[in-house]
Every structure is written in C-alpha cells, then in structure tokens.
Design goal:
Rossmann fold; 23 helices; 24 strands; 21% strand
C-alpha cells in the first residue's frame, strides 16, 4: 500500500481532484436513467484513491465523467468536478481535449483500446509530446525512450520500432502507462489496468505504479473489483454500489473495520491464501446489483442486506461520518462495525463444517504419463530442413485420485489449457500416454467411446463461447441428457429443473435464452450442462476469472456442492492462487510446458517452495493492507516454447540461482532432478532440498492464520 503523506487532504492544500455531489445520467429509449448519484471524494497530490465495487456499480462511469467520455447520450446532471481548484463541468470540448493526455491521463483495462495496431509504438508515444508539448520528433523520441526505461521496459529503443501486437500484454500495459506519464500529469486515472495480466506481471505493474507515484507525486484514481489490488496500492478507498459511494475511508480503516454491509459482504466473498478447502466457506452476496432504472425506493442495498430492517426499505440513508475521514451510508453502521464481523464470523464457523469435502479414496481415476503436445510451425527460411515445433506441453506426468481436485497454476503460455484440452481430446498428443478409469484416452475425442465422452466434461472460461444464443437454457441442458441417454425421455424436463435448482436457479430459467442471463447465471448453466450426465471427471478452465467477487464466491461454493453430492473428480485451472488454495486438494505448478512442483495444497503454500512457486505466491495481492508479504519479482518475460532454455527452463528468470555453489551454471546445462519433500510433495530443482526447507514463508503466519 502507498504510504501516508503528511499534509495530503489538509485544508491548506488544494486537492488535485475534488468531486462534489456528482450525478450522471444517460438518455435511453426508456427515458433518462441516472447511473451515478451524489458521489463525493477528493484526491490529494501524491495520493491514491481506490474505487471498488461489482460490475454495474458506476466506477467507470465516474472516471469517464471526469474526462467527459460519456458519449452522446450521457451528461453530468449536477455536482462539481474541481481539478486543481477549477471546475471542469461546463468546459468546452476544446478545453477538455487540451487537458486530456496532458494534465489528466487515463490508463484503460485493455491496452489495445489505447494503442493503434497499425502504428509503431514510437510514433504513438512521440505524438503525445508533439501535440501537447510542441516538441521536435527527435527530442520526443529520446524522452519516450527514457520514460520506457522508467517503467522497466527491456530494450526500449527496440520496443519503439515494434507494433503493439509484437509485445506481450504486460509490455503493452507498460507502454500505455509510460504514454500516460510522458507529460507529467497531475491526475492519473487507472481503470482496471491489471485485470487481464498474469499475477507476476500484475505485481510488477503495481510496484511500478507505487514507484512512479513517489517519483512524479501524481494523484491516482485506481478502479478495480479486486480487493487485494486495492489494498496494495491505495491510501484511501471508496466503495461504490448501484451508483452511490456507500463507504469511504483510509484503506487500513476500510479493510480492518468495514462498517457498511456491502463492504463486509465483498470481503467475505474473497478467499485468502490461508483458507483451506476442508474448513472454509465463502459467503456470496445474494442477488445482484439492481439496474439503474429499477432501484429500490429506500436503501439501494436493502434487498441484499443481512442487516436490513423495515425502515431501510422506506427511506434512503444519508452519508454519515463515523470517525474523522470515515463516511458510511447506512442507518446501522455502528452495529455493522461493532457486531457484524463477530456475528458473521460465528456463522462462517458454523457453515464451514457443512462443506467438509469427502476425503481421498486411494483409487486413481486419471493418470498422465510423460504427456507431450507439440505444434509444428512454418520454417523461418524457405526450403529449410528444420521443422521447428512449439513444445506447449513437454513431459508432464501426474495422477489424480477419485473425488479430489487437482489445481493447475502458472503464467499464460505455460501449457495449462493445452494439457486440459489434450485430456478431453481436443488436442492430439505428440507423445506419452493418458489413462482414465483404466481406458486409454490418448486418442482424439472423435475416436473415443460414447461412454468415455460422457464421463469427461469441461467448463470453459467464457460461457458465451459455449452456449448457443439461439436455444433456450432448458434445451441446452437437456441435450447431453438425451445424447447420453442419462434419464428416460419422459423425465428429461424434470431432470433439467432439478439441475437448475441444484445451480440455485429456479424452473423459470428453463425457457430463457442466454442473453437474458447475467454472467454468473450463464456460468451456472454451463456447469449444469457439464454435470448433467453425471461425469466422473470435470475439467474447469478458468471458470471464475471473469466474474465479480460475489458471483465468483457463489460459483465456487456451487462447484464444491456438486463435488460433495455427486462425488465428481475435478481438474481446476486458475491464475488466482488464493482461489486455487481454497478450492483444490492438490496443486501442480507449471512453467513453460513442464510441472515444476506438485503436491497437496497445504504443502505447496508453505516452504520448501520451488523458486517459481515462491515468486507466484509473492505476487498474489492480499486483501489486507497490513499483511506482511515478501517481495520477490521475476525479471524478464517467459521464454518462447519454440526455443526453450537448455537445462532448467526457469534458470533465465530464477532469483535463487546464486544459492548454488557454482552460481547456477549447472542450471544452464543440466535438467533439474525431482526431489521428494514428502511422498506426495515433489520439487523439480537443482537447489538441495535442505536449502529449500530453510526458505522464509512468503506470507507471515499471522496473516495466513487470519485467513
């Protein structure tokens, strides 16, 4: 978390940005709809305000209102936006254009929204200085290279000559941040800038934001739905719900003493690194954010609130001050602050026992032995005898006991999804073998027996890519029931309704189309379809990464219930190590096509670690600004699977090579051996196990126990 700075927000200092009673509305075919109401906050020089809330809460609308990017049908209805003491409301488009990119800069969630794919990086960056600073091109390019160096971009002069598609996602985001900082803006607005990044790249970007803030003394408005990210970067936090700020305070105060039921609800949805599957339960917030044209008449959170009373439905609560700097929009904030956490923690302890998973039978249901998936690529030279291949999965072996969940983690491009697609038969094996329930499954799905297909099903990351928009929910869930003859024909509809009820959806969803569902509801339908024929193995490829924290909690709980009731075995891919720790019994860590560490979940999250696992854990954002977390950052990008490094594939980025007597030269020439910490926990590394056992824990024991 950014450190407190003396004098920020004091009466003697004019804030960089002050928003007072802001209201924004959009003209729609149903009339004028107010999207943001009565929003107030301020950001001082060198200070970061984090804005957090579910999708549809109005976070991005506030940001777009500040820079007047509301579109033709959007307008500021009332309130003031004071930038360095001057009101921006009512300014002409020409005046605002002069400010945008100069004194106010914005970084978007998707860097490709800000980068022109047809122009080189250098031309796009230099244009900012040429337009706003009237610099000559040579001078502008020199400044751009210096700024790329400040954001730790490797080989910046070469990057200037590249096109956006030739950079990784993390490099693209660094270019956008560098471009935003070229003119030394007084205010930097960041709208989910790290959501699509790997956890290691995200950690580097968040470190970069803190470093640049200290160097440039810039005021930052940081929008995110990730509480861990907000805790890491913010001095102050504003929690938004249904277009309103419902709580506002210093970051530490928000996380340690949440006083609005919605803030408390968000925190109870988030798994922590210390949460174990056997004794943990997430509490999703029931219902969903109401649309802005159908808000409740009283408190907007009343339909979803555990503390609601009759008066909450009758009138809207005012924003009241609890302590200096801590404001809450709730009639019973004092009760939430004093009794809420204690009462809800007691209920958490009670319900946690309900989700005790079935412990391991010894029978192995899936065995993968030396699996390899290679892709041929065109040779770089015409008539070349070389046939280059991408080694997406290279020598992977593991087994999965029945009714357990194996989590697979690693950065993008490590081979997680390719491995799962090979298991289900969508990718052809180049070598090795796979066995499921005693049957060989190393053949494509088109050559598999119908019973094998029924027993291995998959839940994909994006339900929109798997649900047919032309068919109803009932038809799509019924299709596998009919295809695999799982139930008699006259009972298909009853079974679909039973599955909908299991997914916490009622019979009214049977005749709905996918476009009539929310993202979380679509994912529940996708899960219902996957388990309809009662498969023995379900493969989950990032099933919750695109969901809000409350919906994510509901889906994770749902998958746990499915596993408990049906005895299903699961493979679970995710980039969020907190989710994997909460959900999985065993974990495999993959790097560049190989497993580098595998074992029970509790062993993976405590020393000894593989150095790569250690770096992944160090990068996880923890939703606690007081957490003690060692900072271990990886240098460079993931090497290409087309030409992986010799010896240990991780040696080019390993921060622990100096632990070896020869400085790690053995890592460059010899593949590392497997070392057994226990019978089930193995690490692929040259560093002696005795030395790995002396590692410090990445997260302090106090924080882990608090999870």
């Amino acid at each position: 978390m950014a450190t407190e700075r003396p004098g920020v927000g004091s009466p003697r200092e004019v804030p960089i940005l002050r928003v007072e009673n802001l209201a924004i509305s959009y003209e729609t075919r149903y009339g004028e709809v107010t999207a943001v109401r009565d929003v107030s906050f301020e950001i001082g020089r060198g200070e970061t305000l984090g804005i957090v809330g579910e999708s549809g809460c109005g976070k991005s609308t506030v940001a777009f209102g500040i820079v007047n990017f509301l579109g033709r049908n959007g307008r500021i209805v009332s309130g003031r936006i004071l930038f360095q003491g001057q009101d921006l409301v009512g300014r002409s488009e020409r005046e605002l254009r002069r400010l945008r990119g100069d004194r106010i800069a914005m970084v978007y969630q998707d860097p490709m929204q800000a980068l022109n794919p047809s122009l080189r990086i250098g031309d796009q960056m230099a244009e900012v200085l040429i337009v706003h600073r009237r610099m000559k091109k040579d001078e502008a390019e020199e400044r751009c290279i210096r700024m790329l160096e400040r954001v730790y971009m490797p080989d910046p002069a070469n990057v200037m000559r590249r096109y956006p598609h030739q950079l990784s996602g993390g490099q693209q985001q660094r270019v956008v941040i560098a471009m935003a900082l070229l003119n030394d803006p007084a205010l930097l607005i960041m709208d989910e800038p790290s959501t699509a990044l790997d956890v290691t790249v995200e950690a580097a970007v968040l470190d970069l934001i803190n470093d640049l803030q200290e160097e440039f003394d810039t005021a930052i408005m940081y929008i995110s739905h990730n509480l861990g990210v907000i805790a890491r970067v913010s001095d102050k936090v504003a929690v938004m719900y249904a277009g309103e700020v419902v709580e506002r305070a210093a970051a530490e105060e928000i996380f340690l003493h949440p006083s609005h039921p919605y803030t408390l609800g968000l925190m109870r949805c988030v798994p922590r690194l210390g949460m174990e599957k056997a004794s943990s339960y997430l509490h999703p917030i029931r219902g969903r954010v109401p649309p802005p044209n159908r808000l409740p008449p009283g408190c907007v959170f009343e339909p979803r609130c555990d503390f609601a009373r009759p008066e909450c439905a009758e009138r809207r609560p005012p924003l009241k001050r609890l302590t200096d700097g801590h404001w809450v929009r709730c009639f019973f904030a004092d009760e939430v602050a004093s009794k809420g956490q204690e009462a809800l923690a007691a209920r958490w302890r009670k319900e946690a026992t309900v989700h005790e998973p079935q412990r391991e039978p010894t029978e192995t249901i899936l065995t993968v032995q030396d699996a390899r998936v290679y892709y041929s690529v065109p040779a770089r030279r015409l008539f070349s005898r070389e046939k280059p291949v991408v080694k997406a999965v290279d020598g992977v072996s593991f087994h999965v006991p029945k009714q357990r969940t194996l989590g697979i983690v690693g950065e993008s491009g490590c081979g997680k999804s390719t491995l799962v697609r090979a298991i289900i038969g969508l990718e052809k094996l180049s070598g090795g073998g796979m066995e499921f329930m005693g049957f060989d499954i190393s053949v494509p799905v088109s050559k598999r027996d119908l019973d094998l297909i029924r027993n291995i099903q998959m839940v994909f990351q994006n339900p929109d890519a798997t649900l047919n928009p032309s068919f109803t929910v009932g038809f799509q869930i019924a299709r596998p029931l009919r295809r695999f003859r799982a139930v008699p024909k006259d009972r298909v509809k009853d079974e679909v309704i039973r599955l909908l009820n299991l997914m916490k959806l009622d019979a009214s969803y049977y005749d709905r189309l996918p476009r009539q569902l929310s993202g979380g509801e679509k994912q529940r339908v996708a899960i219902a379809r996957a388990i309809a024929a009662r498969p023995e193995l379900v493969l989950c490829d990032e099933p919750v990464s695109a969901l809000d924290v409350s919906v994510q909690a509901a889906v994770l709980n749902l998958l746990l219930e499915v596993q408990r009731e049906l005895g299903t075995t699961m493979l679970f891919i995710a980039h969020d190590l907190s989710v994997v720790r909460f959900f999985c019994d065993d974990i495999a860590v993959m790097y560049l096509g190989q497993i580098v560490e595998i074992g029970p979940a509790e062993a993976i999250y405590a020393p000894p670690y593989h150095p790569y696992t250690e770096a992944l854990l160090s990068a996880v954002p923890i939703p606690d600004p007081t957490a003690e977390q060692r900072q271990i950052r990886l240098s460079g990008s993931v090497p290409s699977a087309l030409n992986p490094p010799s010896g240990c594939r991780f040696h080019t980025r390993c921060p622990r090579r100096e632990w070896l007597p020869d400085g790690g030269r053995i890592c460059e020439v010899e593949p590392p051996p497997w070392q057994a910490d226990t019978e089930e926990h193995r690490i692929l590394c040259h560093i002696p196990l005795e030395q790995l056992r002396r590692m410090e824990a990445v997260v302090s024991e106090e924080v882990r126990d608090a999870g």
